[in-house]
């Protein structure tokens, strides 16, 4: 059986205020075309269909359109809700939609009720485990503790129990939305830490032929049978080095796995550049980033004038500006009291300016402003003392 594994569409999400609906539509076009070209038997979506519980209407329209197109193509689709989705909203009319071959799994109580598809080698049971928020599903799974490992482990026990009752040779696929130990996170996933522990061991999925994971945005292989597809688009500059793909998975007659990464469309490359402003504006090696979405980290000791406007002249798609001034040599071992010894208030204020600028102290105009501020404070204190 051949299927596409994807996840984390985050329909409706923007990138540093850049609207991504057009890029998301291009990905969904690519998904439907790929499903047709590779004659897949199913499409799997492992959660975070939307970016928030109440998505914008344009995102809902994209979702509605792709469901119609997959149904028209005769491609069964199995999808689960993620931690960004509203499970109840996403699951509305799921029973009716299933008649068209679109199977939404959003209710934790139904995690052991698979979608069963058949190829010439027999049945394949697809179990959809929606994102399981421990505090909300603890009672459903009757776990002793409210933690990710406990509730996901209990859900998998139900899956294995159902699988054991099926005909010998039935192959199995699990969709889950979780942070599995060994996975590499990025900055754009919402934290799901509970009690200090977010990661669950990959061993929870033992006994299953393939586990299609969602939540982490980088495509990665935890082990041969447990994989993240990653998000189809980059949603933070921490994903600059990601190759955005889907998994095309072949499930053999005895559960053998062959997986191939298929590239997703890239609306615009990402680039992180760092250095002093003049260097970034003049370095010929950075010409390759002039058409990219750029995050620039400026290391100038003193914040330059109009840095964003000047960067945009060369890098018109600069979206993020970070300041990390170069630091001069400082005695880090010296205590705070030692650094203040024999310094008056005005000198301490100048030292602070020098520190935050990485070694560049205030100029004459700024010294005058500081001196005037301290004079005003002293006068005000004297007046208060007399009045008191």
Question: Could you give the count of β-strands?
Answer: 19
Largest pleated sheet: 6 strands, mixed
Give the ordered list of helices and strands.
Answer: EEEHEHEHHEEEHHEEEEEEEEEHEHEHHH
CATH uppermost class of the largest domain: Alpha Beta
CATH architecture of the largest domain: 4-Layer Sandwich
How far apart the termini lie comes to 87 Å
Helical residues, percent? 25-40%
| Strand order, largest beta sheet | 6-5-4-1-15-16
Average of the residue pLDDT scores: 91
Using only C-alpha atoms, the radius of gyration works out to: 28 Å
Low-pLDDT residue spans: none
Query: What count of structural domains?
Result: 3
Descriptive account of the structure:
This protein is of the alpha/beta class and 388 residues long. The chain has three domains: 2-263, Metallo-dependent phosphatases (Purple Acid Phosphatase, chain A, domain 2, 4-Layer Sandwich); 270-323; 336-387, no CATH class. Helices cover 31% and strands 23% of the residues. The chain has helices at residues 21-37, 57-72, 87-90, 94-97, 134-141, 148-164, 277-282, 307-314, 336-340, 345-356, 364-387, and strands spanning 2-6, 14-15, 18-19, 42-46, 77-80, 102-105, 115-119, 122-129, 171-177, 179-180, 199-200, 210-214, 220-223, 226-228, 245-251, 257-263, 270-275, 293-298, 318-323. A hairpin with a 5-residue loop joins strand 15 (245-251) and strand 16. Helix 1 runs parallel beside helix 2 (57-72), helix 5 (134-141) crosses helix 6 and helix 10 (345-356) packs across helix 11.
Describe how the helices and strands are arranged.
Elements: E1 2-6, E2 14-15, E3 18-19, H1 21-37, E4 42-46, H2 57-72, E5 77-80, H3 87-90, H4 94-97, E6 102-105, E7 115-119, E8 122-129, H5 134-141, H6 148-164, E9 171-177, E10 179-180, E11 199-200, E12 210-214, E13 220-223, E14 226-228, E15 245-251, E16 257-263, E17 270-275, H7 277-282, E18 293-298, H8 307-314, E19 318-323, H9 336-340, H10 345-356, H11 364-387
Parallel strand pairs: 1-4, 4-5, 5-6, 8-9, 9-12, 10-11, 12-14, 17-18, 18-19
Antiparallel strand pairs: 1-15, 2-3, 7-8, 13-14, 15-16
Helix pairs in contact: 1-2, 5-6, 10-11
């Amino acid at each position: 059986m051949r299927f596409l594994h994807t996840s984390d569409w985050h329909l409706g999400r923007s990138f540093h205020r850049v609207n991504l609906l057009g890029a998301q539509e291009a990905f969904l076009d690519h998904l439907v075309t790929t499903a047709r070209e590779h004659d897949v038997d199913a499409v799997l979506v492992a959660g975070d269909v939307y970016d928030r519980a109440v998505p914008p209407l344009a995102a809902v329209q994209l979702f509605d359109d792709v469901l119609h197109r997959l149904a028209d193509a005769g491609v069964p689709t199995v999808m689960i809700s993620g931690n960004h989705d509203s499970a109840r909203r996403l699951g509305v009319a799921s029973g009716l939609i299933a008649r068209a071959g679109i199977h939404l799994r959003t209710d934790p109580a139904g995690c052991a009720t698979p979608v069963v598809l058949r190829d010439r080698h027999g049945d394949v049971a697809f179990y959809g485990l929606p994102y399981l928020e421990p505090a909300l599903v603890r009672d459903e799974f009757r776990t002793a503790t409210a933690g990710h490992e406990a509730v996901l482990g209990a859900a998998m026990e139900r899956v294995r129990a159902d699988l054991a009752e099926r005909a010998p040779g039935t192959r199995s696929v699990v969709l889950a939305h979780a942070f599995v130990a060994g996975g590499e996170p990025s900055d754009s996933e919402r934290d799901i830490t509970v009690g200090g522990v977010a990661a669950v061991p990959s061993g929870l999925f033992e006994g299953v032929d393939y586990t299609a994971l969602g939540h982490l945005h980088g495509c990665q292989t935890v082990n041969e049978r447990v994989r993240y597809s990653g998000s189809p688009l980059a949603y933070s500059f921490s994903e600059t080095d990601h190759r955005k793909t889907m998994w095309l998975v072949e499930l053999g007659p005895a559960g053998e796995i062959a997986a191939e990464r298929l590239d997703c469309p890239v609306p615009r490359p990402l680039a992180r550049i760092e250095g002093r402003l003049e260097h970034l504006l003049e370095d010929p090696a950075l010409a390759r980033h002039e058409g990219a979405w750029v995050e620039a980290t400026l290391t100038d000791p003193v914040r330059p004038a109009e840095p964003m406007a000047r960067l945009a002249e060369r890098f018109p798609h600069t979206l993020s500006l970070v300041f990390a001034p170069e630091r001069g040599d400082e005695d880090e071992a010296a205590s705070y009291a030692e650094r203040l010894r024999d310094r008056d208030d005005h000198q301490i204020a100048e030292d602070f300016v020098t520190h935050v600028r990485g070694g560049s102290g205030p100029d004459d105009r700024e010294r005058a402003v500081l001196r005037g501020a301290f004079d005003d404070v002293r006068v005000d204190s004297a007046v208060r003392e007399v009045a008191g």
